[in-house]
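Q: I'm teaching a short session on how sequence maps to structure, and I want students to see two examples side by side rather than one. Could you give me a first protein with its sequence written out and its structure tokens following it? Keep the formatting plain so it prints cleanly on a handout.
A: Of course. Example one:
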Amino acid sequence: MAVFAIMEGPDWGWSHPAILTLLVVSAVLLVGFVYTERRKPEPLIAVGLFADPTFSGCNLVIFSAQYTKMAVFVFGAMYLQDVLNMSPLMAGLPCCRRSLRKSSSPRFQATPPTGLVRAGPRCLASRPWASASPSWRSRSPGEAMP
């Protein structure tokens, strides 16, 4: 509902009753979700983890990076299509150019990922970040969210 309200807000007007209703209902549902999850014995999202400033900071940085990418890819492609009159295929190619260039570079092809493939499971199995405290840092990535 919130996404719909944000997407349609500029067209319908931010003071339109439907947009305001959707935003208020979304906020109420979010508060209800957090309230419910904090009281469950096995929550979908362990909301208490966000009390740790390091955990919250890391999630904020990742969210910001993903949001920035969305602005570049989505709105960049829309600009290329609407303003420069490119086809969807031609508008998508500049977004893929860096990825294609990286994967086709000789340096990338000369370094097989076998070492990383072998080291990753060993690192996860040894759990070098584990400590005696039951914080989120002592969990493996798959255990961080129950």
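Q: Perfect. Now a second example for contrast.
A: Example two:
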Amino acid sequence: MIGELTPLQLKRKESILKSAMDIFSKAGFHNADLDQIAANAGVGKGTIYRYFKNKKDLYLNTLEYAIEEFYEFLLNTLKEAKDFNKFIYDYIYYSLEFNCKNYSVYKIILSSSSDVLSGVIEVVEKVQKRYNKFFFERIEEAIENDIVAPVNPVLFLKSLNGSITILINHIYQEKLEEFSEVTNSIYHFFMYGILKRS
């Protein structure tokens, strides 16, 4: 495996990761063919082993790359949202939009077999840990400013993310092109609950 990467090597590694994302999302971990991943990336199969120890390492790095892309997109999109209500609405909407338009990432996670599942969980938690600080700070700030009731920020975000994950599959299965109605429903549920207000 290569140490510090040159710009050309970084570009080659990214090509391998993008190709792997495509193949793993279609074939799953066990059925994915490294020869096909290499061919799609425009490299020889041996080149893959310069960057990754084995197929499992490539799989987990592909997943990490994809999740990082999502969180970077989300951070850049949400950092300008000053109002907490807009922040939560946009968090839901753009999470749904990004993941439905990039459904291959979601499929990689769904297709994880038991022999890579613990690695998948570690990757997801590792990436989330790096980014969650931003989201926790926004929730804690809203609590301090008496905008929302005191809640556990970790449980709130996990519940919200769990709901979004389920809805991604629903939107994809139903082939919905617009996310506003789904976003409004989940936003109102999380911000106001389900009880009727008098």
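Q: What should students look for in example two?
A: Point them to this: The chain is about 80% helix and 0% strand. Also worth mentioning: The domain at 55-192 is CATH 1.10.357.10 (Tetracycline Repressor; domain 2).
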